[in-house]
Write a structure and sequence with these properties.
This protein is of the alpha/beta class. The protein folds into two domains: 134 residues, D-Maltodextrin-Binding Protein, domain 2 (3-Layer(aba) Sandwich); 107 residues, Periplasmic binding protein-like II (D-Maltodextrin-Binding Protein, domain 2, 3-Layer(aba) Sandwich). 35% of the residues lie in helices and 24% in strands. It has nine helices and eleven strands. The strands form two sheets. A six-stranded mixed β-sheet has the order 2-1-3-10-4-11, with helices on both faces. Strands 7-6-8-5-9 form a five-stranded mixed β-sheet, sandwiched between helices. The longest helix is centred in the N-terminal third of the chain and has 15 residues.
């Protein structure tokens, strides 16, 4: 195989080493050259500028709703820990500062809130859905601020720049492990979800045989002792197969918000 593959990641910068490793691992197994780049906008996916992408479930759903023939989910990580039930799922952990009096999501009415980006399921999409189910679509938070990424949202809560945020439980778990004092500076008051976790998606312009080979490689990587160190760094137990139907939970949440005309946090 002489083809060169372009991999793009849109996920948390903290886990760039994991995504870069996966890029190299897959390309070595396939015997091809590869390029690993950080995504600048989801328009790159719409323009077909990536062969393989690490992307949140919500933008995958949104892009696929506009063009079903563009992307195919191949596999998704199964995160270490009992809460993940040996399934490709994750949660949106609602965090506040350690001194906060809030004990549940409903206690945050009127508080300042940080989100990473509007295309994030854990940081934005499931928050909208939760407020919709609470009947709080006419303004719940006192202030809503875009942080840019989950690590920044965590920092803003810890430093008191905002009172609360919802962050990817996978990323938060890595941060709590890496930053030994972080656990004393914040608390999780509620966990929203679970949602199907971020997929590895392939362009449908790739030959089907290549897509199937990539899926097979990802499904086998959890059994490779040589990969275990980097998988453990990312708190990944293994990868599980996913397809378009796996993201029906996110499609349903988004559809209900759209039907209610509630797609902007306020």
């Amino acid at each position: 195989m002489s083809q060169s593959l372009r991999f793009i990641t849109y996920l948390a910068p903290k886990l760039y080493p994991l995504y870069g490793y996966l890029t190299g691992y897959v390309s070595r197994r396939l015997g091809v050259q590869s390029e690993f780049v950080m995504g600048k906008s989801y328009a790159q996916l719409q323009r077909g500028e990536a062969d393989v992408s690490f992307v949140c479930g919500l933008p995958y759903v949104l892009i696929s709703s506009m063009n079903p023939d563009l992307l195919e989910p191949l596999a998704a990580p199964v995160i270490q820990g009992e809460r993940y039930q040996d399934k490709p799922i994750y949660f949106s952990d609602v965090i506040v500062g350690a001194a906060s009096s809030a004990t549940s999501f409903k206690d945050l009415q009127g508080c300042s809130w940080a989100y990473n980006e509007t295309e994030s399921q854990s940081g934005y999409g499931i928050t909208l859905y939760t407020l919709l189910k609470m009947g709080k679509t006419d303004g719940f938070f006192g202030e809503v601020i875009r942080s840019g990424y989950h690590q920044k949202s965590i920092q803003m809560v810890v430093e008191g720049e905002v009172e609360a945020s919802a962050v990817d439980s996978h990323l938060l778990g890595v941060e709590l492990r890496e930053q030994k004092g972080l656990k004393k500076k914040l608390k999780i008051i509620e966990s929203l979800g679970p949602s199907t976790i971020q997929p590895v998606v392939a362009s449908k312009n790739l030959d089907r045989s290549i897509r199937e080979d990539i899926r097979a490689i990802l499904l086998e990587i959890g059994d490779d002792p040589a990969a275990r160190g980097m998988l453990d760094f990312g708190m990944v137990m293994r990868f599980a197969a996913v397809d378009e139907s796996s993201y029906q939970d996110i499609r349903r949440m988004r559809a209900e918000c759209e039907q209610a005309g509630f797609t902007v946090l306020r």
